[in-house]
Amino acid sequence: MRQYLDIKSGCKDAVLFFRMGDFYEMFFEDAKLASRALGIALTTRDKERDIPMCGVPYHAAGGYITKLVRKGHKVAICEQMEQPGQGKGPVERAVTRIVTPGVALEDELLESGSNNFIGAACRGTSGSGFAYMDVSTGEFRITDVKDGDSLTDEIARINPSELVLQESTDTAGLPVRNVTFLAAYDFKHDVSLERLTAQFGVASLDGFGCSDLVEGTRAAGALLHYVRDTQKADLGHLRRCTPYYPGDYLVMDHATRRNLEITENMRSGDRTDTLLSLLDRTRTAMGGRRLREWLTYPLVDEGEIRTRLDGVEEFVESREVSLELEELLSGVHDLERLIGRVSLGIASPRDLVSLKESLKKVPELKQALGGFRAPITAAAAASLDGVPEAVELIEGS
C-alpha cells in the first residue's frame, strides 16, 4: 500500500489502475468512483483498516478504461516492470501511460472520420494563444487570436475533447467540458519555445512560420508538455507544428455554425442530417477527417478555391480513373493513426499488417494519378511514398 500511495501521489487527478498479477486494482476513493461508474463490486483489502478496493481483469481492462474516459475521467495505467520474485520487496511498478479524453489512442474511444483534438489556450497582454493536437494522427496547429471572444469561437470551432489551461484561469463561458490545469511555468514563452524546438530538432520555429505567434507558442509548448507527460513517450510522429490564421477562413461564430448544422445537428449533436453527412462519400478515415476540416474552415481566397475546383473538375472528367481510385482507396487503412501507434510503441501485430497492406496500395495509387495535371492533384501524387523498406521489414518479421 505504501508503494501504491507513492505512485498515486504523482497522478492525483486520475483513477489509478494498479497492476497486481492478472488484475488492475483500485483503492480508496478511486475504488469508490470506479465501482459507481463501472458497476463493479466494491470490497475491502484490509478489514481492520477498511480500505475500499475493486478490480478488473487485465485482459479485459480496455473496455473499462473506455467507459471511464467517456465519462470524462482520466486513467493512469500502472504496470509491473519486473516479474514477481526477481527482486527484494514489492514488485517494481510504474505508470506507463495516462489515458484522458483528449489523449486517447484506443479504437473504442476514436471515431474514424473525426479527429480527437486536445487543445491548450492562454491569454496574454497582446491577445490570446490557442494550439490543438490530435495525438493519434500527429496533427499539431497553433494560432494567435485578438481577444477572448475570438478565442472562445476558435475553441468552439475545434471542439476539443479536453482543454489545457493555466492554473487559476476563469473557465466561465468556455465551450468545453473536460479541463486540465497546468502551472504558470508551463506557459512561459521561453520554456515553451525550448520544448518545441527540442521536439522538432530545430534551432527556432522560423522554418515552420510560427516565430511571430507569441501567445500561440506559449499554448503549444504547454500542450506538448502535457501530452508527453501523459504518454510517457517521445512522440516521434509529431514532427512539426503548423501555423494558421483564422482570418484566412470564413469566420462564423459558434451560434451560426450550430444553426447551419454543418458537422453536428441541433437535436442530438451527432452528424446525422448534417451537411457533412450529405457530402461525405470518402473511402478512407483520413479522407473523412480532411473533408470535415475543409467544412470547418471554409476558404475565402479565390485563388485557393479555384485550385481546389480545378482538382475536382479533373476527377469529374476522368470518371474511369476516379472509380479505379475509389476501389484502391477502399483497401487503405488509417495510415495516420497506424503510424501514431507504431511511433508510440503500442501497435499490435494486426496494426502492422494493416500498415503493410495499405502501403502496398501506394504504387498503384501513384500510377493511377499519373495522368492528372491539376496542381493540387499532381502535388498529391508526387508526395506519395510507398516506403517499400517498411513493407519488406513487416513481411520478413
How would you sum up the global shape?
Answer: globular
> How do the helices and strands follow one another from N- to C-terminus?
HEEHEEHEEEEEHEEHHEHHHHHHHHH
Structural class: alpha/beta
Major sheet: 6 strands, mixed
Mean pLDDT: 93
* Beta strand count: 12
What is the share of helical residues?
40-55%
The value of Rg in angstroms is: 23 Å
What fraction strand? 15-25%
Number of discrete helical segments: 15
Q: Pick out the low-confidence regions.
A: none
Word description of this protein:
A hairpin with a 4-residue loop joins strand 8 (127-134) and strand 9. This protein has 397 residues and is of the alpha/beta class. The mean pLDDT is 93. A 6-stranded mixed β-sheet has the order 3-4-2-1-5-6, with helices on both faces. Helix 5 crosses helix 6 (214-231), helix 11 packs antiparallel against helix 13 and helix 13 (349-368) packs antiparallel against helix 15. The protein has 15 helices and 12 strands. It has helices at residues 2-8, 28-38, 61-70, 148-158, 189-200, 214-231, 254-260, 275-279, 285-296, 302-317, 319-329, 335-344, 349-368, 375-383, 388-395; strands spanning 15-20, 23-27, 43-44, 52-57, 75-80, 93-99, 118-124, 127-134, 139-145, 162-166, 179-182, 242-243.
Index terms:
single chain; 397 residues; alpha/beta; six-stranded mixed beta sheet; 15 helices; 12 strands
Topology:
Blueprint (H helix, E strand, L loop, with lengths): L1 H7 L6 E6 L2 E5 H11 L4 E2 L7 E6 L3 H10 L4 E6 L12 E7 L18 E7 L2 E8 L4 E7 L2 H11 L3 E5 L12 E4 L6 H12 L13 H18 L10 E2 L10 H7 L14 H5 L5 H12 L5 H16 L1 H11 L5 H10 L4 H20 L6 H9 L4 H8 L2
Parallel strand pairs: 1-5, 7-10, 9-12, 10-11
Antiparallel strand pairs: 1-2, 2-4, 3-4, 5-6, 7-8, 8-9
